[in-house]
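[Solved] Which block belongs to which protein?

Original post:
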Amino acid sequence: FYATFLDLLFRDDPDALQKSYDETLGKYHSYLTATTFKTLAAFMPSKQTICSASDLVPGTLPDADKLEATVSHDVQLAVDVLVPVISDAIRLCRELHLWDSVRA
């Protein structure tokens, strides 16, 4: 979920949260779980909040524009690695019949 969320968020998708939930976790959640998740989702960070977190660029104190550019670049690198790895892990679990598609 989070990798998909970051990918969409940093592509400036205005519906990043809902789309990433629907594409990933939403398929497996019951109504109660989905409602709880949507309530808690209000606390997800915005792109601006993530990009202003200087702790993500340790050892430097770049100006706000450089910080945003560095964080955006690093997020895209992470997403480019994480999404295929997670997709492969899911595929492997399904092949080995270790993936439960039942809504919980």
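(Second protein starts here: sequence line, then its structure tokens.)
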Amino acid sequence: MNLLQVVLVTCLLSACFGEDGGGRVWKTVPRRPYLKSDLESTPLEIQTDSRLGDTVYIQVYPVVGEYSIQISNILDSSPIVLLIAPGFPGTLIQNYFNLTGPIHEWKISKDNKYSKFKISCDGIEKIYDFPSSDQDTWKRQVDEIKFMPFDTATSRYKDSNWTWQDLAQVRLPNRLSLYPIEFKTNDASSARQYTHITLYTADFKAETKVDIQWDNDDYQFWIDQCNRCDGGQSYAQTRFTNVPNDIEQTWKLELSPSQLDIHCNGVKVYSYVYNNPQYSNSACIGCTAQMNMQFEYFEFNEANDKAAVEYLTPPQCTGLPESWAGVKMEPELPLPYNSRVSVSCADGYNKTSGDSEVVCLGEENFGFNSQPICRKDCSDDKKDDDKDDNKDHDKDDDKDHDKDDDKDKDDDDDDKQDHGKDGGGSKMLYLGIGLGAGFVVGSLIGLVLYLVKAKCSSSAGRSNAGASYVVKNEKARVYEVA
């Protein structure tokens, strides 16, 4: 391999195409667009996928003020509509849609003349009166619409050219106990900058927030509900003093069961200890319980995060755990992180237990409820044993036949044998030694076949006891879905 080939291979495995090895890729931080729509002449058309989430959350911005339209419980067959204006209680719409299947198309519009909202799903329209509270807000002309981070169900929308566009998914998969969150900022100004990251559990029902903000070289740090757990320091007192003075900065947030380490351009700038016995107040106990949750997703909060420009994706799945002998995946490796993959058994193996679908968690890690187990199929070995038995039987028949012939020959040659007793005695000795050796070899072969059968029936495809578990800050091979 010449120098040019070495450079090309190195380039392919690293930063030439935005990769960091193992399928890790630097991607632009996803942001959701503001859409120009008045909801009258230009209704909002969206597509939802309940496999992504169960809530549509749209923020509507009239010329003055704002309000939100929510469609929740999309995972159920009867979602509900909720209209909310700031300072007024939400108005719950009791007209339900009866939905089946995950994919649905919606159209949302309003009619100021008759004070009505119109919401249709898959061509079935329902009409709702404007809420009686704050009529002026609902009647104002709409200027822009924004899909909020809480919107987990919307997958596509129609732009101003009435073309379907994919909606950016801002909640990014990453198991924090396996892989740190890594992102880049580019601070070319002296204005105050924010990086605001929200961490989520798998069901999005529990979350915590990590906030880094700076003004010039004055860096401050804060964790939701933990701001007085690290020696009693308040938000304004928690500062970094050794941050590299570079315009482009690469940050890494690394979580362990006791602390959160923050790195910038390879320098550890802060270690936030939230599981320190020295701080046993109630705030610290709650902080520890919160930070020890299994975080599966993170999000750059669009309202506050203005500094993050890129983030590093988790690695692909590139191999199988050692205990998964005979397991076959469809599609085949390598697999994107967080992708679901079907599990079966390779030729010569039978599936005895475990999930038929697992989730890729990067490298050789997979999420499952019950570990897939494939045991070696011993039927082929049995066929080979039967063939060997038949061969042995044929050999025995041939031996018996040869013995009869030898007996007849011995009767005819008695006189000759009497004259050669001394030579015959030596021959009998050799024959006895040969038969004894054959018995020993045959016994050894039988023992080997027995051991092979025992191994095939008991150990092939055996799963590691306790292989499915969840640990913190440790690269275990197999992890259970939280």
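Accepted answer:
You had them paired correctly. Confirming on the second one: Helices lie at 3-12, 135-139, 282-291, 379-412, 414-419, 421-458.
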